[in-house]
UniProtKB/TrEMBL annotation:
Protein family (similarity comment): Belongs to the activator 1 small subunits family.
Residues annotated as domain AAA+ ATPase: 105-244
MF terms in GO: ATP binding; ATP hydrolysis activity; DNA binding; DNA clamp loader activity
PANTHER family noted in UniProt: REPLICATION FACTOR C / DNA POLYMERASE III GAMMA-TAU SUBUNIT, REPLICATION FACTOR C SUBUNIT 5
BP GO terms, sorted: DNA repair; DNA strand elongation involved in DNA replication
Keywords: ATP-binding, DNA replication, Nucleotide-binding, Nucleus
Protein name: AAA+ ATPase domain-containing protein
Amino acid sequence: MSLQQPRYHGIPQSHPVQPRPLQLRPSTTNMSDDEMDLDDGPGDASITFSTSEAKGKRSAANLPVEVGDSLPCPTISQIRFHKPPLDRTNADGDIAVTKFIEQNKLPHLLFYGPPGTGKTSTILALARRIYSTTSEATLRHHVLELNASDDRGIDVVREQIKTFASTKQIFSKQESSASTAHFKLIVLDEADAMTATAQNALRRIMEKYTANVRFCIIANYTHKLNAALLSRCTRFRFSPLPIAALRRRVEHVIENEGVRIAPSAVSALLTLSRGDMRRALNVLQACFAGSTPLDEKGVAKTGPDVQRELITETTIYECVAAPHPEDIQAIMNTLLTEDMTTALLTVSRIKTLKGLALTDILQAVAEELCRLEVAAAVRVQWLAGLAEIEGRVAAGGNESVQTAGFAGVVKTGAEMIAKS
């Protein structure tokens, strides 16, 4: 069964909005060149990128060359399918970050945007290009990666970061080359989780040790970052990945792993991932693991001769607990055509039988209502009402009462259409 746009009793539909490509907005920053302390020998090979291997993300030194976000399910090969998206730093082909690297004038960087869009993968790829190496030992000397959601206090900034930034590696003639940067790189992932005190201490370190180190701050929300930090960085926004980019990577995984999946299921997977590559791969792995048959002891069978079940569109929707398009179509039809009592009973029955959350139904119905060509007043009535219902549910309101309110909002808009 393919994903098709449903029609609701003569109400025309506009074209769905296509995902926007990655928008990058580089801005300039002023940096000072202060004197550094010198470290007269190569760094200790035991140095790792974070304080503990047990928490936070893995260090760049411990990851393969082509690396991204590790995935929990071991059934599908993990990291090799999530290559660092270095070529997506500029959608117009004029790659700003690559020019910075070629001129050896890399500023402090701020990568921000929703999760699963390749921020960490990009800086790991940049690090390998900056230092012209894939050697783990070499990267340990030049790159310090901290997951700021774990290492988020003032002590980390004063001890680890300041110690790493205040020393300068003296490269040997054999290691030195025109493509090797003269500075170190500190990557602060999930920096929006850092405390305000730590952010205040970090801004002075960024300014004082610019001649020796560059910072790459990665965050999902910039409003949680100190304004002084933002002013010291060149910003790059990572938008949700377009469907075409997701499809290329997902189909690559499907082909290499021999996943049996229907074309309609692939389309559903890409739609539900909402531009998040990590989520798309995680859902695909979960469905792939669920399609593997079990032996008499309840252990998953392995081997090339194992016949796995076909992953269908329904499998994808059940895996993420999202409402199926047929259910949304039934809800839309009853809300737009039936009386209030019948519509409320139908919505409640579908919600209970399928185990759907009201917030998921609200989101799916809102997307369908936005595709309908109706008067502006009707659209405002629908969206304002649904937004208010969603806020009440998030605040802990009773779902039964809010379900009735949801039905009333859509019915009110339908009555406005009938009167016009």
